[in-house]
Inverse folding.
């Protein structure tokens, strides 16, 4: 007979009051109809999820799922389709989006640059040219003037290191360059752009919150005690994770963390991940990594928002546990004094996954690309309960 003492009581992990529970998207991946940016010819996204026209429906869904925040990006090529020409209709469009968020009591987290740039900016050399930083800062400042009364949280740049790496080192994303020098230059200019926007924004509105969404890997040594493996790991932390954050240490109000990857490294740099669980696109699921990163982010003494975390899982077999496990580790970090203030799941809806197209399904909500019908996956309801209770039961 089972010993009644063995029955494990469910444990309730409560999150701090005022915690932001949300999900994230980006304009090019969901809106549709973006033809004037540097991605459009190489990797057309067509009508995508038609979020541009259906944002109210999508925000209703977000609300219905008990979320209280939403991260999205504003498409620069819509706002400034030609150099120095502002499209008032598009400016009004995003104002309506932000107002719709406010009406639903969803806190807007606005990204200014999420991988796409207007074609004219790309033609001018994009972020590879230091003098072009000016154009981005001008665009950003315009948005602050337009929406500053409604938006407190701004993310200047999404994943500067991924952007520099994929587009200028690996040559997969536009402008498909393969040059170490170019990628370093782009990273440097993105940092400069962020710093300048930070300065501008704070001089115009001292109370805004500005950060970047930084893609960080959880690196660890394959042989725990091997000095060589530990050396490689230390180097990777420094180059990939810490470099950018150090550069903007004095000009960010929060740390935005996008967590997807784990690297178990062996000298001289081989990756030896066990990959016990993988998503539909082969990315390893490694929830404890988020805890390891959060502990190390404590040294910045700033609030932390998980600006992205999620997986491609069309059948929704793993997503519920993925959310539960990551949140359990996040909760543990909070208990140990890390100031995490919000979590944004990637993504609200299935969307256009860059060079991979529409195959990968990252959404809490499934999209039927024929009919554009939205259908909540079971994990969306599971996450919704957590959001509602501001607590996770394990
Ligand atoms: C991140 C991107 C986001 C999405 C996820 C899966 O690197 O910021 O747009 O593509 O990966």
């Amino acid at each position: 007979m089972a010993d009644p003492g063995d029955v494990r009581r469910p444990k309730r992990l409560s999150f701090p009051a005022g915690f932001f529970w949300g999900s994230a998207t980006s304009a090019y991946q969901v809106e549709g109809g973006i033809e004037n940016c540097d991605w459009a010819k190489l990797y057309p996204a067509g009508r995508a999820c038609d979020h541009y026209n259906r944002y109210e429906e999508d925000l209703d869904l977000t609300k219905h799922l008990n979320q209280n925040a939403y991260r999205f990006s504003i498409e620069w090529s819509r706002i400034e389709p030609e150099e120095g020409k502002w499209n008032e209709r598009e400016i009004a469009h995003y104002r309506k989006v932000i107002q719709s968020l406010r009406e639903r009591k969803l806190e807007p987290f606005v990204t200014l640059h999420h991988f796409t740039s207007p074609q004219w900016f790309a033609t001018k050399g994009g972020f590879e040219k230091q003098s072009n930083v000016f154009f981005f800062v001008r665009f950003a400042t315009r948005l602050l003037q337009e929406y500053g009364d409604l938006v407190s949280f701004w993310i200047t740049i999404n994943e500067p290191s991924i952007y520099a790496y994929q587009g200028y080192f690996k040559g997969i994303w536009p402008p498909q360059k393969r040059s170490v020098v170019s990628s370093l230059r782009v990273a440097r200019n993105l940092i400069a752009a962020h710093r300048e926007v930070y300065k501008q924004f704070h001089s115009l509105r001292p109370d805004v919150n500005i950060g970047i969404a930084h893609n960080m890997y959880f690196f660890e040594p394959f042989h725990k005690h091997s000095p060589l493996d530990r050396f490689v790991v230390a180097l990777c932390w420094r180059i990939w994770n810490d470099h950018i954050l150090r550069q903007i240490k004095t000009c960010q109000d929060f740390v935005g963390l996008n967590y997807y990857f784990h690297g178990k490294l062996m000298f001289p740099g081989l990756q030896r991940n066990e990959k016990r669980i993988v998503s539909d696109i082969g990315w390893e699921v490694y929830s404890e990594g988020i805890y390891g990163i959060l502990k190390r982010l404590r040294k910045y003494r700033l609030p932390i928002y998980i600006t992205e975390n999620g997986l491609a899982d069309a059948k929704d077999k793993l997503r519920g546990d993925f959310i539960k496990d990551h949140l359990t580790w996040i909760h543990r970090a909070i208990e140990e004094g890390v100031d995490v203030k919000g979590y944004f799941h990637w993504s609200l809806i299935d969307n256009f996954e860059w060079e991979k197209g529409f195959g990968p399904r990252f959404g809490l909500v499934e999209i039927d690309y024929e009919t554009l019908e939205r259908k909540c996956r079971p994990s969306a309801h599971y996450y919704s309960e957590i959001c509602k209770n501001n607590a996770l039961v394990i």
About this structure: The chain has twelve helices and 13 strands. The radius of gyration is 21 Å.
